[in-house]
Write a structure and sequence with these properties.
The complex is a heterodimer of chains A (about 260) and B (about 475). Chain A is mainly alpha-helical and about 260 residues long. Chain A is built from 11 helices and 2 strands, in the order αααααββαααααα. In chain B, α4 packs across α5. The mean pLDDT of chain B is about 90. The chains are: A mainly alpha (about 260), B alpha/beta (about 475). Chains A and B meet through α7, α8, α9 and α10 of A and α3, α4, α5 and α13 of B.
Chain lengths: ~260, ~475
């Protein structure tokens, strides 16, 4: 099973980077892709991201969400085409030949443009966050954020939320099978769909709540919130971190004038 | 090291006390095993002895708990208590917060105010004593149940305590993994640790148990040296249940018509061949036990009987129907499958509604009468209006069976139906299954319990690495 957003243990370039470097990377990439509306520039960012992933030996892992990305892209583009018609008309979603409703939804250059920009931004962001999460051990993240002054409760909340995604997936699958064996029949129509959710969601949530109390006790007993911490096997800033930081700085310095000149 | 004096406890918003005037003394380097039926208050005892009840729960408390010479009330919270008492809870998954084994244990070591050298030294020692060295980079999702238990134990040991409390560490484990845990505990005891163990499998821990305590309805009903306590017939039946005499001669099953035929069945998960050309014929009215280590393909095999899984190659014929041509819903009339953890299916507000769900799905005639009869057979007639999750583990297990039995399938398949039950509860489940067999149902159980397989089943099928390696009733 593809494990969504889980740390993958490896010893490669991205794994060896300091978490702070990777956080800086995410920030720079996010701001750039949110400011830019230039399709070519955004596409270039995606290519850069893929090269980065390949260099960190994480290309296969980071392409796992491809299906989700494609589905979301199609939805984004459809929504903007329908809701934001603007510019030249290229054609119609409903062919003009059909009586009454023919020619109702025009496909416009403006709508397509916005759709593509949103999609590409979305892909860049997913890529960046995914690279960060699958290459950073939660322990290192706890260290880094702890030093940055982030309360440990928030960090733990974040890593636990991610950690239990696959657990819930597996458990959901088991519950689904147990109910199928009892003749579970996903209902028809809107009401039926909602009713058919109960046999899956109620056991899933009840079990998760029980588990949450044990997680809470475990955290308290291990003293994550109250104990004094000894830092061992710490990641230190190495030459590769300075190199990445330098690349980011160059990118920002190049990006600002281009934006001011309204080129991208 | 731990002393409970007349401890009584009532959970918030409940009336019945969970613990009633409990007194016990656990001396340094000793091991106490606590056993008893599900719902007897064993887990509450764990929480009381570790100070968790005092620091983390409301409710009504009486009596005193002394840990290492100091009243639990005088400790500064759980983190302080955990320096003296380590608790391994019964759900190992919830005790893994990080993403690799080594990270989990290392993180537990880091908050103890130790120097870096001591941390590294302890880390490698703990990894060694719990046999986790080779698994250090695995994620929780790639560990078996027994491995997860060992990680939970290791992370608890990392806290540096001399007293260990373990809440049913082996309930979901097979023979092999249970032996591993028993071996680790034996070594820990030899190194001076004090152990309070909640368990059903006395046999495996016979060597290390100094005192055996039996709990029923929140109170201690027997305590003493194991050989003394076990002279009592009632205790004996609970701890070392006798399943002999359950098997009745139903006559040679040969000649009866087959109800499930598996022909050359192969199934793969990715590159792993979970089942490799399996052929097996089960005849109507048989009681079959499928045994084998975890990962040998038992559950994968039975999931083919109602098409939760489809064969990669080969065929499964159930009651004359090739499963390829039928839906899971239509096969539910023929095969009922009860999974290992009954909590994966309960969602209704009452026990009765829970049983009614499957009956309604299949549109069975005379539903009310069928439901009443099933509840009575499962010994749940008086619990019909209760909320399913309030029942004890033993009752929930029987409810899980009732939910499937009420759908009146010819074949009833049960995955580990006696997990986490004491001797009497297990015997009750087996007796119910035996009655169903007498009514003409075919019963197939997956079990780790060799005793049950030998004494209750007409036929034992042993699996290993996706193959059937022995079959006592093969035609």
């Amino acid at each position: 099973m593809a494990e969504i957003l889980q740390y993958v243990h490896k010893d490669a370039f991205l794994h060896r980077l300091h978490p702070l470097t990777k956080i800086a990377f995410i920030l720079v990439v996010s701001v750039m892709c949110l400011i830019s509306t230039n399709l070519a520039f955004l596409a270039l960012m995606i290519v850069a991201m893929m090269i980065f992933a390949a260099y960190g030996e994480l290309l296969v892992e980071s392409l796992q969400q491809l299906k989700l990305i494609i589905i979301m892209s199609v939805i984004f583009i459809l929504i903007t085409v329908i809701t934001m018609p603007n510019g030249d008309i290229l054609g119609y979603l409903i062919p003009q030949g059909i009586p009454y409703i023919g020619g109702l939804v025009p496909v416009t250059t403006g709508g397509l443009m916005i759709g593509f920009v949103l999609t590409l931004r979305f892909i860049v962001l997913i890529f960046a966050f995914q690279l960060f999460l699958i290459s950073t051990q939660p322990r290192d993240l706890v260290h880094t954020l702890d030093k940055a002054g982030m309360p440990i409760d928030y960090t733990l909340m974040f890593i636990i939320a991610l950690r239990f995604i696959p657990t819930l997936q597996i458990e959901g699958q088991r519950i689904h099978e147990a109910q199928l064996a009892r003749g579970f029949n996903p209902g028809k129509g809107f009401i039926g769909k909602i009713r058919s959710v109960a046999p899956i969601v109620i056991p899933l949530v009840s079990n998760a709540l029980l588990r949450a109390s044990v997680i809470g006790l475990t955290i308290d007993m291990r003293g994550y919130r109250t104990g004094t911490k000894t830092h061992v096997r710490e990641r230190t800033f190495a030459r590769r971190d300075y190199a990445v930081m330098a690349v980011l700085a160059v990118a920002v310095l190049g990006f600002v004038p281009l934006v001011l000149a309204q080129l991208i | 090291m731990i002393e409970l004096n007349n401890v009584s406890y009532t959970y918030p918003r409940t009336v019945q006390p969970a613990l009633h005037r409990i007194s016990l003394a656990l001396e340094k380097g000793r091991c106490i095993m606590v056993t008893g039926p599900s719902g007897a208050g064993k887990t509450s005892l764990c929480l009381a002895a570790s100070g968790v009840l005092h620091h983390d729960y409301g409710g009504k408390k009486e009596g005193s708990v002394i840990v290492d010479g100091k009243n639990v009330a005088d400790y500064q919270g759980l983190s302080d208590l955990a320096r003296n008492v380590g608790v391994v809870f019964d759900d190992p998954e919830a005790q893994m917060i990080f993403t690799t084994v080594e990270e989990e244990i290392l993180s537990a070591l880091e908050y103890r105010g130790l120097s870096a050298d001591v941390i590294e030294e302890r880390l490698s020692r703990i990894m060694r004593t719990t046999y986790l060295e080779e698994l250090k980079d695995r994620s929780p999702h790639h560990l078996s149940g027994g491995q997860k238990q060992r990680v939970a134990l290791a992370a608890t040991l990392a806290l540096g305590n001399d007293i260990l409390i373990l809440d049913e560490p082996t309930s979901e484990l097979d023979e092999h993994a249970t032996k591993r845990i028993a071996e680790i505990l034996k070594n820990l005891k030899a190194s001076g640790k004090t152990i309070l163990l909640i368990e059903h499998k006395f046999e495996h821990f016979r060597d290390i148990v100094d005192t055996l305590i039996v709990m029923e309805d929140g109170a201690i009903t027997a305590t003493g040296r194991p050989d003394e306590v076990l002279t009592n017939d009632h205790v004996r039946g609970m701890v070392l249940p006798d399943f002999s005499g359950i098997k009745k001669n139903i006559g040679p099953s040969a000649g009866k018509e087959p109800i499930i035929s598996v022909n050359n069945l192969t199934h793969c998960y990715g590159n792993v061949r979970a089942l490799d050309s399996i052929s097996l014929t089960i005849r109507k009215g048989e009681f079959v036990a499928i045994v084998g280590e975890n990962g040998s393909g038992k559950t994968t095999l039975v999931k083919h009987f109602n098409r939760l899984l489809s064969p990669a190659s080969g065929d499964v014929i159930v009651n004359g129907k090739n499963t390829r041509d039928h839906t899971i819903a239509s096969l539910a009339h023929d095969v009922g499958l009860v999974f290992q953890n009954p909590d994966h299916m309960f969602f209704a507000d009452t026990v009765r509604e829970e049983v009614a769900y499957g009956v309604k799905n299949l549109g069975i005639a005379d539903a009310d009468a069928v439901i009443d009869a099933t509840l009575a057979d499962a010994g749940l007639a008086n619990s019909a209006s209760l909320y399913p999750r309030w029942l004890s583990r033993g009752e929930r297990q029987r409810l899980g069976i009732a939910c499937v039995v009420a759908m009146q399938p010819n074949v009833i398949v049960l995955d580990e139906p006696t997990t986490g039950l004491d001797g009497y509860e297990a015997l009750l489940v087996i007796t119910i299954l035996k009655k169903l067999q007498e009514k003409g149902h075919t019963i197939i159980i997956i079990t780790h319990n060799r005793e049950i397989a030998d004494n209750c089943a007409d036929r034992i099928v042993t699996m290993e690495n996706g193959h059937i390696i022995s079959d006592t009733g093969g035609a």
